[in-house]
Design goal:
The complex is a heterodimer of chains A (293) and B (284). Chain A is mainly α and 293 residues long. Chain A has 13 helices and no strands. The longest helix of chain A is centred in the last third of the chain and has 35 residues. In chain B, helix 7 packs antiparallel against helix 10. The radius of gyration of chain B is 23 Å and the shape is globular. The chains are: A mainly alpha (293), B mainly alpha (284).
């Protein structure tokens, strides 16, 4: 949040305060409702959902839907459950986050502490790249991935996510390093420290918060991506979001709502955990991404 | 050395962003069908695109969705931010509850709302069970209203984020201004209408740009909730682009629609970035 967290000077009456709390509480219910629906219905039997009330607590508690969603549910043509796709997403997200964050840090370092002619043009071009609708790159990307033999593979998806994550990771580090005292860098240079040594010894040790912000931002975006996964992944590299959508929208057989809800929670869990553990940094990333561009 | 370090990223962006934009732009002038072709056909695809019924539905839906999404998110976001700014006990606990949907994938959000709004098992059923037997809420299955269900889910996902933007704006306002107005005898309502909300202009602008840009790009949520249906009732530019390019084998028309989407986003983002950069140059 903003550094400036003063209390407002507005004064309110007791009655107004009661009304304010009531409204705030209504919105709490609104925001929690879908999560509540997912959780309670993921541990109900299918009969109970069909015949009963989506907002009521389960009469018979069962973890069967969870086991099914994880291990045996039909995804596409084979009964694999979501497990292999969860693994696919992890295998995609880890390298995509590490590489994009590292490159972003280096770019931000160069763009603030080793300025060259045209540095602002380079940055401007990287900044604009953050906002393109990805539809504009889908066709050539499919062609290129095919040409270099990465079509339908996890490394192919990693490449895609690194490329289109770079703009934001660079933006985050650039804005952070902009405020970092250049004198320190100059002094280290006088002492004979080289380009990389200054980066490792001086900038990285004080980059903790921005690394957390960037990692969370990139992790959330890559994990939650659907468009690239749906466009470029094979059955063997399909990420969690695409598998979940296949599970939920498959038109054959009975609609197992409880299994769908369990699967949806599984897909949501990694980013939710990150949010619960470090929500402050998550919000900072969102704000930086929004306000600065 | 420094430039050598930056070069790989810059080259990647140059090729994969700007090169690809040029490539897609070129394809929009060709007769590409299943595969890219380089036979020039001039503006044929642009003419074809605007004659497509699906495209006019998509543009109309984007207008309805975009307008409602932006207005409702802004209204809820501003309301919650103002209320949360009244020295609320437990603000620290409330804020994350308003914001967590932003951490979810649109596919998850879509799944939750798709079944919750399903007339067979969801809200309609619940209210009927509560005793209002004639209650009906089948929007998601109704061609005329399906697009509004997507607005409901999208607002749920992003309004908390808009709240955070306004709250940051409110916290940045100097209390001296408020106190001065209070001495002049302004009521709270007047204070907000005349003084505080006008001061939030930058936050309004950011919210507008972010929401508008998300509306143009919306794809996942539509796919998860309705797959563009019933019929093509919830077609959006992004779903149009995907289906024409990859399932209907009309890549030329698909590329054309992508170009239009880029132009829409650019008309939103470019002035905004210029204003930001210029504003900073003025020593803000």
């Amino acid at each position: 949040m903003a550094a400036n967290t003063q209390d407002t000077a507005i004064r309110t009456s007791r009655l107004a305060r009661a009304a304010i709390y009531a409204v705030l509480l209504v919105f709490v219910i609104y925001y929690l409702l879908p999560l509540f629906v997912m959780v309670v219905n993921s541990v109900k039997t299918l009969d109970e959902i069909r015949g009963g009330n989506m907002l009521s607590l389960p009469q018979i508690f069962t973890i069967e839907p969870w086991l099914k969603a994880w291990g045996t549910a039909q995804i596409g043509v084979s009964p694999t459950g979501l497990k292999p796709f969860f693994a696919n997403s992890l295998a995609m997200v880890v390298p995509a986050v590490v590489i994009a964050t590292l490159l972003g840090a280096l770019n931000g370092y160069v763009l603030t502490k080793w300025r060259f002619r045209g540095h602002d043009l380079v940055f401007g071009m990287m900044l604009l790249a953050c906002f393109i609708p990805f539809q504009i790159v889908l066709i050539p990307m499919a062609t290129v991935l095919g040409k270099i033999g990465l079509a339908g593979t996890t490394p192919g998806l990693v490449l895609v996510h690194v490329v289109y994550g770079l703009g934001f990771t660079t933006l985050f580090f650039r804005n952070y390093y902009e405020a970092f005292p250049t004198e320190l860098v100059k002094a280290a240079q006088m002492d004979g420290a080289g380009f990389f040594k200054i980066f490792y010894r001086i900038l990285i040790p004080s980059s903790g918060p921005i690394i957390v912000v960037t990692v969370i931002w990139q992790f959330t975006n890559v994990w939650n991506d659907f468009l690239f996964g749906a466009s470029f992944a094979d059955f063997d590299s399909m990420p969690m979001t695409v598998a979940l959508n296949n599970l939920v929208s498959s038109s054959t057989g009975v609609k197992e709502y409880n299994v769908h809800f369990a699967g949806a929670i599984m897909a949501a869990l990694p980013t939710l955990v990150v949010y619960v553990v470090s929500g402050r940094y998550f919000v900072r990333g969102l704000m930086a991404g929004a306000v600065k561009g | 050395m420094p430039r050598l370090v930056l070069a790989p990223s810059f080259i990647l962006i140059l090729i994969f962003v700007y090169g690809f934009i040029v490539f897609t732009g070129y394809l929009s002038f060709t007769d590409s069908r299943i595969l890219p072709s380089f036979d020039w056909v001039g503006l044929t695809n642009y003419a074809k695109l605007w004659q497509q019924r699906n495209w006019s539905i998509a543009i109309k839906n984007l207008a309805i969705f975009g307008l409602l999404y932006i207005v409702i998110c802004t209204a809820i976001g501003l309301l919650l931010a103002i209320l949360l700014d009244q020295k609320i006990r437990g603000e620290g606990a409330l804020r994350p509850l308003y914001l967590y949907p932003m951490a979810l994938s649109f596919i998850v959000t879509g799944t939750a709302w798709k079944w919750f709004l399903d007339p067979g098992i969801g809200l309609e059923q619940v209210v009927q069970n509560w005793g209002w037997e004639s209650f009906q809420f089948g929007w998601i299955k109704d061609r005329r209203f399906a697009i509004y269900t997507i607005v409901i889910a999208a607002v749920w996902q992003t309004s908390g984020f808009v709240m955070a933007m306004f709250l940051a704006g409110l916290r940045g306002i100097d209390n001296e201004i408020i106190k001065a107005a209070q001495i002049d005898g302004a009521s709270n309502v007047q204070l907000y209408r005349r003084v505080i909300i006008p001061l939030l202009r930058p936050a309004f602008l950011s919210a507008f740009v972010v929401l508008g840009h998300m509306a143009i790009k919306s794809y996942d949520l539509v796919i998860a909730m309705t797959s563009g249906g019933p019929g093509r009732a919830t077609e959006m530019p992004a779903t149009f682009m995907y289906s024409f390019t990859f399932t209907r084998n009309q890549m030329g028309v698909g590329a054309t629609s992508a170009v239009i989407m880029l132009m829409l986003i650019a008309s939103l983002i470019v002035p905004y970035i210029f204003a930001e950069v210029r504003g900073r140059g003025d020593g803000r």
